What does this fold into?
Amino acid sequence: MLTTLAVENYRSLRRVVMPLRGLNVVTGANGTGKSSLYRALRLLADASRNGAVAALARDG
It folds into this structure.
């Protein structure tokens, strides 16, 4: 299980370090990076299944 998510220079996110627990809820106003955080998690999951090169190619 992941315990910390760190994202740097991905889409609208410059630097985010977020501790993760059993259940995590992300809230915030429009345009604050919630979707970018979700996409970063999807990219990580895709890279673990299919390899980093394929995941990055799909992400664009």
Q: What stands out?
A: The mean pLDDT is 95. The radius of gyration is 12 Å. Residues 4-18+32-59 form one domain.
